[in-house]
Structure formats: C-alpha cells, structure tokens
Specification:
The protein has 195 residues and is of the alpha+beta class. The chain has 2 domains: 103 residues, LON domain-like (Archaeosine Trna-guanine Transglycosylase, Chain: A, domain 4); 75 residues, no CATH class. Helices cover 37% and strands 26% of the residues. It is built from 5 helices and 6 strands; from the N terminus they run E-E-H-E-E-E-E-H-H-H-H. Strands 1, 2, 3, 4, 5 and 6 form a 6-stranded antiparallel sheet that branches. A hairpin with a 5-residue loop joins strand 4 and strand 5. Helix 2 runs parallel beside helix 5 and helix 3 crosses helix 5. It is globular, with a radius of gyration of 19 Å.
Length: 195
C-alpha cells in the first residue's frame, strides 16, 4: 500500500531531477510565507510539475539550500535542491492554516547517492574527455549524469519512470549522441578552420 503524506506545495512549470539545484525568485506573499516556514522549520516542500504533459502528476521534493538575496520589497532569490520525486494524489488550495498550497503525495524514496555502474562511468568519462573536461569524481550517481546532460521535460518524465537498468541504457544512449555531436563539431572546425 502506498503511503501518502501531506506537504507544502509550489506548483511551477519546472521538473528538477534528484540532486539538481534550482534558482527560484520568490515574490508572491504565499510563497514568501512558504520560504519563511522552510527557513525556520527546515522542512522539504514539493514543486509540482504544472504542465499538461505531466499526466502521471509527478513532482520534485526539494529542500532550501540557500537564500542568495533578500530585497527590500520582501522578495527573495533562493536555491533549492531536489532530494526525491513524488506522485501527487491531491492538490489543495492551502496547506493547513497557511496561504500556500499543499498536496497529498507519495514519495519514491530514491537513493540519489547510489554510485553509477562502471559501464555508465566509462561512457560518462568519455563524454567529459570529448568536452575536454578533467575527470570529475564528484559526479558519481545516475542523477548527476542526467542533470549534466540537460534533458528537456519529456526526457525527464521518461527518465524517472524507467527502471534502473532502463535509466542506465537511456543515459548511455544520450551520452553517445552527445559525443557524436561533439565529434562532428570538431571535424567541422578542422574543415572550416573556425576561430
């Protein structure tokens, strides 16, 4: 049986993947209240992916990472980090006695720090070599790879719904595609002597 929990919600047209850090500009009074509560109580909240393609009602559980700037008007620039993915059962206009929305969700409880396989790591290292980037041992999970590849919304939705083996195959195919593009760019530079 799925365990649903009620959490504060911030519906947006974005879908962060686990590990991804996202900048947000907070200006509406209800979300300023959400920020105050997240700071004072150190809780997570949901970013529901408010888009017509999100037929499975997926969203990202995020945690406040830092407040970058506070404006005299009460607005703020913040950074949040995605820590899990959830499926939403219900969206409520308000969360308990607050101004901001809430939602009844089931979190996936993903292990976002699980190291990637050696096979995926090998392909990811090749990708970094193609970009002429030094080996980066800070990237060690599948989600780190997915975040670096810059998926569009459709790819993000597909990726999170795949099994772990399908996710790995998907990432490897995307890496191969990127490496092939980079190879063609290098060949074009040689042919046209680009600056």
């Amino acid at each position: 049986m799925t365990d649903f929990v009620s959490i504060p919600m911030f519906p947006l047209s974005i879908f962060p993947l686990p590990g991804e850090m996202v900048p947000l500009h907070i200006f509406e009074p209800r979300y300023r209240q959400l920020l105050e509560d997240a700071e004072s109580r150190d809780f997570s909240f949901g970013i529901y992916f408010n888009h017509k393609s999100n037929t499975e009602k997926l969203g990202s559980l995020v945690k406040l990472e830092s407040v970058i700037k506070r404006y005299k008007t009460g607005e703020s620039d913040i950074i949040v980090r995605c820590i899990d993915i959830f499926t939403m059962d219900k969206l409520f206009r308000t969360y308990k006695d607050k101004l901001y929305p809430g939602g009844l969700v089931a979190c996936r409880q993903l292990d976002i720090h699980k190291p990637m396989s050696e096979k995926l790591k090998s392909h990811f290292d090749e990708y970094h070599q193609s970009l002429k980037i030094a080996k980066n041992d800070a990237h060690n999970s599948m989600y780190d790879v997915a975040n670096e590849l810059g998926f569009d919304f459709a790819e993000r939705l597909r990726f999170v719904n795949y099994s772990e083996s399908q996710q790995e195959s998907f990432l490897i195919s995307r890496i191969k595609y990127h490496v092939q593009l980079l190879t063609h760019v290098e060949k074009a530079r040689d042919v046209f002597h680009l600056n």
